[in-house]
Design a protein that fits this description.
By secondary structure, this protein is α/β, with parallel strands linked by helices. The protein has six helices and nine strands, in the order H-H-E-H-E-H-E-E-E-E-H-E-H-E-E. The chain has a single domain, classed as Vaccinia Virus protein VP39 (Rossmann fold). It binds S-adenosylmethionine. It comes from Halomonas cibimaris.
């Protein structure tokens, strides 16, 4: 799977990339009540401009992406210097308040992200095949502290076996996340030209007593 993503980035087959911030992020982020300076984890971040939107809203951002092309294209999008350093197997590129960690999200350890207080997933869960989605939901729950809030933007499509992007039903989202998160369904978009229907969810990491 890694090789396929790297190839897609090399060949520029990145139809998932949006030139403008996702409307559900703009509409719902403030409703989550995430404190302005809270650091936001963006798993499988690509070169999403949503990270710029979050940074402009005052959040330090930590994106994780294993395609170096995505990271280089992201930082090239702004005329601002970068710092490069390494930490525990990740090559990190920092531009302003955005850190991009190049490597496998599943290798990220709680020790490395202790200061994370919120998260944002658009087209990350749905980039993964079903068995890996279970691992993703569990790993995310391990990384974020009780009380951490996040926005999840998922999708369904007619052919449930096609992908990526994979179709993830509402029932699957409940099943994946409800053991560790309180979930609130926010909205569903009308189908686009390909028949893809996006859904937005607010998540809050449960603690030991709630
Ligand atoms: C569908 S794209 C979504 C990118 C971004 N979230 C957006 O909205 O544009 C999924 C991205 O996840 C990356 N990816 C897939 N599996 C990964 C993993 N295990 N660790 C880090 N990045 C991964 C791929 O290279 C790809 O850029």
């Amino acid at each position: 799977m890694t090789g396929q993503w790297l190839k897609r980035w090399r060949e520029g087959r990145i139809g998932f990339h949006r030139a403008t911030p996702h409307p559900a992020l703009v509409r719902y982020w403030a409703t989550l009540g995430v404190p302005r300076a809270a650091k936001v984890l963006v798993p499988l971040c690509g070169k999403s401009v949503d990270m710029r939107w979050l940074a402009d809203a005052g959040h330090p951002v930590l994106g994780v992406e294993f395609a170096p092309d995505a990271i280089e294209q992201f930082v090239a999008g702004r005329d601002q210097g970068v710092l490069r350093y390494g930490q525990a197997g990740f090559d990190i590129v920092r531009q302003g308040s955005i850190e991009l960690w190049q490597g496998d999200f599943f290798h990220l350890h709680i020790r490395q992200v202790a200061e994370i207080a919120a998260f944002y997933d658009r087209a990350s869960l749905i980039a993964l095949p079903r068995p890996t989605r279970q691992r993703y939901a569990f790993h995310l729950a391990q990384l974020v502290p009780p009380g951490a809030c996040g926005l999840l933007i998922s999708m369904t499509r007619k052919d449930p076996d096609a992908g990526p992007p994979y179709s993830v039903s509402h029932a699957e989202i409940e099943q994946l996340f409800s053991p560790n998160f309180r979930l609130t369904f926010l909205e569903q978009s009308p189908p686009d030209a390909r028949g893809f229907i996006e859904s937005a969810w607010a998540l809050k990491r449960r603690g030991p007593i709630n």
